[in-house]
Give the backbone structure.
Amino acid sequence: MCGIIGYCGPKAASEMLLSGLKRLEYRGYDSSGISVGQQNSGEPHSSEATLSIYKKEGKIAALRSIVPQELPGFWGIGHTRWATHGGVTDVNAHPHLDCTGEIAICHNGIIENYMALKERLEKEGHQFVSDTDSEVVAHLVESFYTGNLESAVKAAVSLIQGTYGLLVMHAQHPNEIIGARNGSPMVLGVGEGEMFIASDVSAMIAHTKQVVYCEDGEVVRLTPQGFHVTDLKDRPIDKSIEGISWELEEMEKDGYDHYMLKEIYEQVDSIPRAMSGRLDDTQAAAVLGGLNMSERELLAVKRIVILAAGTSYYAGRVAAYLLESLARIPCTTELASELRYRNPLVEEGTLYLAISQSGETIDTLMALRELQRKGGRVLGICNVVGSTIPRESDGGVYIHSGPEIAVASTKAFTSQLAALYLFTLKMARMRHMAWPQGKRFISGLRALPGNLAQILQNAPALEALAQKYHSAESFLFLGRGINFPVALEGALKLKEIAYIHAEGYSAAEIKHGPIALINPSTPSFFIVPDDHLRDKVISNMKEIKARKGPVIALCTQGDQAVAAVADDVITVPPCDEEFTPFHMVLPLQLFAYYCALQLGRDVDQPRNLAKSVTVE
Ligand code: F6R
């Protein structure tokens, strides 16, 4: 989703902004722009300045092509836009200006009352040029400005309903940037004589690893010398500077053609990282210190509700199955977007798990806040350290998968699973799981990297499969039990990066409707491990074959019965039933990747999608 960056310091601001925006590309965007303040004398400390604005629909490369090389100017703001209000055009791209052209703003979020504000401002004589909600902020700041930019921004945001990560600069305030946050992420980067402000750390990691996370309701005044944070009532807020553990190299493609492919291959390392230091062989249990709950409190948990969106939601569905079957705790998974508005019943004994790779998904964050407001205890299962969900959770588990840059989530899914499997082990060992079962479970977890490395060797077979099937208009992904959510995830991957219509279903459900879709050009991708439902799934495969539907099967090595029915077979090494989701999802990720390649799609930044979904 929209990304913002601001810079003030001794270096050329245009270059700092453009390279920062490049790092924010992964969030998903359709246009971009920068505003650079140029001191008229060319001196960094001159008090006279003008703003130069460059905005362009399309990729950052298009923006770069219109920004003069060696553009003077030492402070500025930039934006990648993911359109919400108003089409994808140069005019609708940020930054937006006020009527004087002296105030520039970049905004991430949605101004819900922008129509009323716009009407009021138009009556006062303000001229609007774009169709965006964001432009009202520039004019609002203008309407309140009497010489103090920070006060004008505070007056403006106090009238705004909605969400914002906002950056404002003024030509008469050289080297000063004002930032304000409500519901959209914002982080400061502290350098040597230079300061950064952005929607996430990736925009500044090449320059500093010292960061300050902003909270809702905070306003920041940034100059090259430092930062000052206050609330809307001008009360100063003490902030601590934290270090980032991610390395710049982790954000590079490292020789792979795409981030997605790199991240698929990384799973062999990212899964053990999620488990590192968390397995207790002596007790055959898991150690999860960040939960902030005593054993007694964990034992008092009577029900678990998982909330998440997209791929994280499917990880939650796998976990719900596991928690119920191994820990014997009733567990349901809910779409955070629905849970929030359903007026959920929060009862004593219920524990909530919010799963989010980015830690910024607004639907999940808002559901978390609603549950906490009602007195619910919410644990976060997140990847991005310091992001909003883990900071606002009552405790949780970081999955440590490292930066996930491709829009389509792959390694975060399996690392979420790894963290949730550890949580299940912990809960199960406090209840019905005996020590030998705990030991066996740990062995299953430890076998994952080796098995996944073997599965990755199937890449050429999956590439060939994609060559054969990529022109199909529609796919069914079918699985059962713990692999039903994996079928949903397989369908989601194919939709989002190959733009092929795909539906995920329980294999048992097809006869209740979807079987009507079957014809010789609609392939069904079956997930059929050697588990207690295998024979039933084989019968479902035969039902499809009888109707001349092509059948692809993902099954356990050596399964002749499956091979006898399917047109194409991909195999995975044998494992205990509960570990099959890890084994099954990898080939589905690779299949989607190769289909997308065949179809010439933009694999890492698929159309219309955003990595971090910070608007409702
Ligand atoms: C799919 C995908 C999305 C995210 C969803 C939630 O590949 O990436 O469906 O899973 O937007 O995002 P997080 O996990 O950041 O809350």
